[in-house]
Structures are given as structure tokens and as C-alpha cells.
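Notes from the 1:1 (GR / supervisor)

We went over the backlog. Supervisor wanted to see one worked example end to end before approving the batch request, so GR pasted a single chain during the call. The sequence is below; no edits were made to it. Supervisor asked that the structure be written out right there so they could see what the output format looks like.
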Amino acid sequence: MNMSIKVRYFASLKDRIGRSEDILEASEGISVQAIWHRANADKAMPDNTLAAVNMDYVDLDRLVKDGDEVAFFPPVTGG
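Structure output shown during the call:
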């Protein structure tokens, strides 16, 4: 079964990748980390990248479902 996943990039990740979002077709059982690699095969995920599914922060091994929105954020530094 194919799923449609919306992938969004924020802040410096958006600048680094050169776009703000992708729509990916994927099969069931794909993880957040695998979504990054499918969408950005030529770019390694920066260390400490944060990920969210449907606006909830998740681990990179979290599996996504049809219609989910996956968002990637650069590491947040405080000061």
C-alpha cells in the first residue's frame, strides 16, 4: 500500500536543502529517518536534527502513516 507523506523543512535546514517541503510516496513501515534519506539522498542529516510527526517531537525510528506530516528542524541552541 502506498502512502503520501508531507515533509517540511524549517530554518537553516530549509536554506541548506533549498526547499521548504516535499511530498513523498512511500510504502508502509517507513521511519522518519528513512523519509529523510528518501527525500535527500545526496545530503546527510545534520547531527542533532529534531523531527516531528504531526507537530509532536518523535525519535528518528518512529514509523509514519499515510497522511502524516513529517517536519525536520535544526538543533535548537539556547542563550
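Supervisor's comment: The mean pLDDT is 93.
Batch request approved.
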